[in-house]
Fold this protein.
Amino acid sequence: MTNLGETLKQLRKQRRWTQEQLAEQLNVSRSQISKWENGSLLPDIQSLEKLCHLFNVSADFLLGSELGQREVLREVKRLYGETEMGGKTLAVVDYVLRNREISDAVYTLAKLPEKKRKHVETMLITIIKECAEALG
């Protein structure tokens, strides 16, 4: 379980924002962001709400009290039915959600017409497998 400061810093860096840029988004000082990230100060409730909205995450996630993988898997199975989902699927979902650019790209891919999407998916699978083998 991570703390708010670590999570906030990770989310900020994923967006490639400086503390100053995040502070401007929230209308607070850069030093306040620094204190949140190093754990010497917690954001007030309004700032916490803005952070959740800005990063599109829950307060539970920001505060480090997100559900464990088993609970998430149970909830996914409840929503989508009994499917063959397990730790591998959760790892993929977690990776995509924690990497904003990949998340945005996957969302864009999902919106493509099926024929175009299948073509791009085939290319991506090939590229990823070849890169993994080369780096492996």
The chain has a mean pLDDT of 84. Residues 114-135 form the longest helix (22 residues). The two ends are 29 Å apart (CA to CA). The chain has nine helices and no strands.
